[in-house]
Structures are given as structure tokens and as C-alpha cells.
Amino acid sequence: MQLASHPFNELRLDNMSRSFGAFNALRDISLSIRKGEFIALLGPSGCGKSTALNCIAGLLGTTGGGIFIDGRRIDQLKPEDRGFGMVFQNYALFPHMTVNQNVGFGLKMRNVPRAEIEQKVANALALVRLQGQGDKLPGQLSGGQQQRVAIARAIVIEPPLVLMDEPLSNLDAKLRLEMRAEIRRIHNQLGATTIYVTHDQDEALSLADRIVVLRDGSIRQVGAPHELYEHPAHIDVAEFMGFRNRVAGKVVARNGQVATVAIEGASLSGVAADDVKAGDTALLMARGDDVTVSDTGGNSISATVETVEYRGREFVGMARTGTGMDLIFHSPKPTAIGSVISLSVAADKALVFAG
């Protein structure tokens, strides 16, 4: 009996944990996911995001906590009894089967009548825009087409939950952009709930209704894309949201939400975390595209240009401060390597964290 194969209102992870011997891959993961949501699990390699997905799918057992669908515990069910669709990073297609056979495999295992399988397979291939490709083998398709087949196979069983484990990581940049839009379109059209694993912040920001940032097996922050992008709560979350410029100094003043940090004889201000106070050592962080070459010297620091790259509409450079801190900056015109420049960032575009 497939208890979880019908539409649900809430998937709840209740202190879900997974250990491998003494290593804790997941630590007390608690999260409620609503029907129809697109959730992105974001984090670096080894943070536990794929482990979490595999525990939800039933491919890995949990060693603590539970997984619930509308209050019914499902983590003791076999994967096939959970009724979820899964899209793997490496596609996991059967090379000796045609596209039609690959997509219809799950239906065949459920003893669905042949005529119904053919109709559902045709509908799924139409949804992923692969009409006319059903008689081909996976090896005759491009990488993007193979990924579409994998998605069609996952959704043809009409699952209430679709699990995707870095499905675009093997595609080139152009195909990733195209498939990103397709995945969101398919999600919207199906109305199913989706949990999507990625290490790419752009994928998470563009696809998800909510992003769950993981580190060392624990949840660091959960929120809508704009919330995490504009207000990361921790240093590691800020780095994933693009705040890769980091300069260390000492907080000399705090006025409301703004803290001023003394760094190499300069004073830089930014929006401070709640625990930052005057006298603390601190990190001021900013995105590279918010750091510009300044002639006025306001909220700026001096640095020596190390590299400059032309990116089409602008130049992107890296400059090094007197104490060896590297800063990425953007400029509409080239700057000479070896020149000393003043790099500036608006106070509302910088973040200050204690540490």
C-alpha cells in the first residue's frame, strides 16, 4: 500500500538525523514543507543535502527523528511504497531501453495497463517537450534531452513529491539556463511539491519558493530567496549568497543597524548582525558587483590591482589590500595592474558579522 502516493498538505521532517558510525551526516533536521512548494536544499559538497534527499526518498534510512506526511509517519516505508518521483544527477536511464520504455518503467512495475502506460508516457514526454523521441535510445540523445527523459520518468507516476538531486550539474551553462526554466515550468504545471538539491546559488534563487541552507549536516537558515539574498543571518550563508569579499577589522561604533569597522586605517560601514557591538573584531562582507572604484573615497579602502578581466559590459578585477586581503571589484573601464585604487561599497550593501 502506497501511503504517501496521494496528494498531501504537509511533509514534515521532525529532527531527522543520519549518522554513519561516528560521523553525523545530518543533525536534527526539522522542516515543514507545504503542498505545491518548490524547496531548494543549498550548500557546499558534504553539507548533507543529498543525504537528506535520499532519506526522504527512502534510499537511506534515518538514525533519528522521523518523516511525516499529514501526520502519518513514512520513514519506515520502502522507497517504492512512498510513491515519490526521483531525478538523479547522472540521469540513471536504462541504456538498452527506448525513451518510451524508460519513462514507462515505473508504471509497468505498478502493473498499469499497457494502453494507459502509452497514454501517460505520451503525456509526460509532451510535458518535457520530447514528442517524437520515444523510440530512441538514451545514447542517441543529448545531455539535455536525457535529463528531460529522467524528469518525465519521475513525473509520469503522478507523484505528490518530486525529488531532484543536482539534476543540471552535468550540463553546460546554456543548457542549465534552459533546463532551469523548464523545471520551474513543469513544477508549476504539475502542481506537485518539489525538493531540489543544488550547490548553485543562482539555481536556488531562480527556482525556489524557499531555500534551506545546510552546513555540516545542520540547517543554517530557511527563507524566501529575496530574504536570504538580502539578509543572510550567518557568514557562511552570506558567502553562498554572493558576499565573497571579506575584510577583517574592529568595530569602532554602532548606530542602530549600522556598524563602522576600522580596517587598515580606513573606516567602512555596513549593516550589522544583531550580536555585533563596539569593540568586537568583525568581518565586513560585500558582493563583488557592489564594490566599485571610487574617486571620492567615501566608505572605501585602498588596494593594489592584481588582475583585471573583461566580461563584456564591464571589467572585473581583484585587488589586494596592504595586509593581503583580496577584494573583487567591478568597473566600467579597465584599471592598470599594479595601480593603487580606492574601492568603495555603499553601507547598505555591506554586512558586518562578529568574528
Account of the 3D structure:
- This protein is of the alpha+beta class and 355 residues long.
- It is 25% helix and 36% strand.
- It is built from 9 helices and 20 strands.
- The strands form 4 sheets. The protein has a 6-stranded mixed beta sheet with strand order 6-7-8-3-9-10, with helices on both faces. Strands 11-12-13-20-14 form a 5-stranded mixed beta barrel.
- β1 and β2 (23-34) form a beta hairpin.
Classify the secondary structure makeup into a structural class.
Answer: alpha+beta
Low-pLDDT stretches: none
Radius of gyration, CA atoms, in whole angstroms: 24 Å
Question: Into which percentage range does the β-strand content fall?
Answer: 35-45%
SSE inventory with pairings:
Elements: E1 10-20, E2 23-34, E3 38-42, H1 49-57, E4 64-69, E5 72-73, H2 79-82, E6 85-87, H3 99-109, H4 114-127, H5 143-155, E7 161-165, H6 173-190, E8 193-198, H7 201-207, E9 210-215, E10 218-223, H8 225-230, H9 235-240, E11 245-255, E12 258-263, E13 266-272, E14 281-286, E15 292-293, E16 300-310, E17 315-320, E18 326-331, E19 340-344, E20 350-354
Parallel strand pairs: 3-8, 3-9, 6-7, 7-8, 13-20
Antiparallel strand pairs: 1-2, 1-4, 4-5, 9-10, 11-12, 11-14, 12-13, 14-20, 15-19, 16-17, 16-19, 17-18
Helix pairs in contact: 3-4, 3-5, 4-5
